[in-house]
Design brief:
Shape: globular
Largest sheet: 7 strands, mixed
CATH architecture of the largest domain: Alpha-Beta Complex
Bound molecules: NADP nicotinamide-adenine-dinucleotide phosphate
Low-confidence stretches: none
CATH topology of the largest domain: Quinone Oxidoreductase, Chain A, domain 1
Length: 305
């Protein structure tokens, strides 16, 4: 089968290559998915799990990609809950990746049924950002109606989902990002926008929750805009930053089939818009992940036409 592989961590996305690889086999409780569409988060190439297995042994050449939508073609020994021929979407384990390929072996518990009226491209684009936004706002951030949320990177893949879920939940949303993304963030539902490259976002005061996707200095500065007792949620890694009398939660998403059901229902009934910036074939994937101009939104690889 055709697959994208990486062997050199220092090379980043420039080190991706399209090669022939053997088709994966389904282990106990796995399914094999014929991948129709898949996604990749650039952060993946910095995660140890892309390069080593759980015992820290080199697992290169690795096939990156965790996000996928496709059709089940085989079940592993003992696998229940999914059937051959079923449309599915979800996320492979980070120590496995493997979705930038024609077939991927994935644990069945990491997949959910994909309704027939939701396109594979859309399915592959909502799993990772949708679950991340949902868990950050409602599981970790315990967002309530009437609260205010500052969303960094509000026009990005995760930020646009955070904005839409927060608005639907009755929160007031202030988005941040690059100036070019102002209108896009407002279109996703942000009620205000702060250009964090040129404006001082500390002018915003007393928000209940900050949802950070950027990290570093932005995370540190964010603690100061939160009301005492409020919450800083970040997906950009551990931080010392903490709001006064409040909580900081940095987390990595976990798969949750019920939450994915909530998310896909919102896609079907029009409450949630996905944020796709580019769609490319597997043959063009390496170029798509090394763009010559800035692309806002997710790049999705349409593996099968
Ligand atoms: N912990 C988890 O569970 C988890 C889950 C999903 C994603 N992540 C991580 O979260 C991050 C965001 O993911 P994503 O898929 O939403 O990425 P994305 O689509 O690239 O969105 C990030 C947004 O923030 C903007 N941005 C980044 N740095 C900025 C800066 N210094 N100033 C102004 N705007 C800035 C980006 O603009 P530009 O495109 O112009 O840079 C983009 O609009 C990634 O690092 C990803 O690896 C973590």
């Amino acid at each position: 089968m055709k697959a994208i592989v990486v062997t050199d961590q220092a090379a980043g996305t420039a080190g991706m290559r399209l090669v022939e690889r053997p088709e994966p086999q389904a282990a106990i409780n796995d399914v094999v998915v014929q991948v129709h569409a898949s996604g990749f988060t650039s952060g993946e190439l910095t995660w140890p799990s892309t390069w080593t297995d759980r015992l820290a042994r080199d697992r290169t050449p690795s096939i990156p990609g965790q996000e996928l939508a496709g059709v089940v073609t085989a079940l592993g020994y003992g696998t229940t809950g999914l059937s051959v021929g079923q449309r599915v979407f979800g996320l492979s384990d980070s120590y496995r990746g493997g979705t930038l390929a024609e077939y991927a072996a994935v644990e069945a518990r990491n997949l959910a049924p994909l309704p027939g009226d939701v396109d594979f491209t859309v399915g592959a684009s909502v799993a990772m950002p949708g679950l991340t936004a949902w868990q950050g706002l409602f599981v970790h951030g315990r967002l309530q109606a009437g609260q205010s949320v500052l969303v960094h990177g509000a026009a990005g893949a995760v930020g646009s989902m955070v904005t839409q879920f927060a608005r639907e939940a009755g929160a007031y949303v202030i988005g941040t990002g690059r100036v070019a993304d102002r209108q896009k963030a407002l279109d996703f539902g942000a009620q205000e926008f702060v250009d964090i490259e040129n404006d001082v976002f500390e002018d915003v005061r007393g928000v209940d929750l900050v949802f950070d996707v950027i990290g570093g200095d932005i995370t540190k500065r964010s603690a100061g805009v939160i009301r005492p007792g409020g919450t800083l949620v970040t997906i950009a890694g551990p931080t010392e930053a903490r709001p006064a009398d409040g909580l900081t939660i940095d987390f990595v998403l976990v798969f949750d089939r019920a939450q994915l059901g909530e998310i896909v229902q919102r896609v079907r009934d029009g409450r949630l818009r996905t944020n796709i910036g580019n769609i490319a074939t597997l043959d063009d994937a390496v170029a798509a992940f090394n763009p010559t101009k800035r692309i806002s939104g997710k790049t999705i690889i349409r593996v099968r036409p």
